[in-house]
Amino acid sequence: MGTNQPWEHPDWYDLHDTTWTAGPEREPEHYRELLLALPPLDHDDHLVDVGAGTGKLASLITGGYPRLGQVTLLEPNERKLALARERLVQANPEMTVDIVALSLGEGAPLPPGVQGNIVTIGSVLMPIMILRGGTLADGLVWLQKALADVISMARPGGWVYALETLAAPWDQGTPEMPARRLSLIELSDEFEQAGLVGVECVYRFRDRVVLRGHIPSGD
Length: 219
Ligand SMILES: C[S@@+](CC[C@H](N)C(=O)[O-])C[C@H]1O[C@@H](n2cnc3c(N)ncnc32)[C@H](O)[C@@H]1O
Prior knowledge:
Layout: H1 10-16, H2 27-37, E1 46-50, H3 56-64, E2 70-74, H4 78-91, E3 96-100, E4 116-122, H5 125-131, H6 136-152, E5 154-165, H7 184-193, E6 197-205, E7 208-214
Helix pairs in contact: 3-4
Bound molecules: S-adenosylmethionine (SAM).
């Protein structure tokens, strides 16, 4: 990496050092932007939220669209998953809420018949790529498998929405270097390689983005 990179400039460095990361205080705004970017959801719609955690994103979406017909929450941590389901059912007793305890991208068989027309990913892909360790090349292999899992749980013509935190400008390691977050171009390329079309960044604030892509309708 050359010494003329922007972060080598002391003033640029001081401005960006702790400023780059979007910051937890703005997190509700980023999640709300994903909600606002969704198409209208109603009785016939099926939301699949992967890496659902304790249901933060799914609760926001079902709060905005209380007539949404069916929700499937996928999350490997069974205690988080149970809490997420409890939250959704308490707030929306009429809604069908199914849970699946599973890790994406690990070759585990996916539940048969789960075909959402909206699949959401709330801050899962980039953090898990890093937490798994290994090289960037290893991380990309996992990401590609995880996206294949995501797409196989989506209906033709449906949408995939992801809220992710991108790499900082200085995070530029090559594939043999440790796993890192991706740039917007790299993440968009992965979405396209996975088979999504019309991939678009519908919101960005510094390192926080909402990306969406369409599943081809097969017509
Ligand atoms: C940063 S949290 C985000 C949770 C939730 N989507 C939200 O926005 O609050 C990432 C979640 O991904 C889950 N996770 C970890 N490995 C995963 C995998 N391989 N597939 C799906 N989810 C995974 C974690 O257990 C954690 O709940």
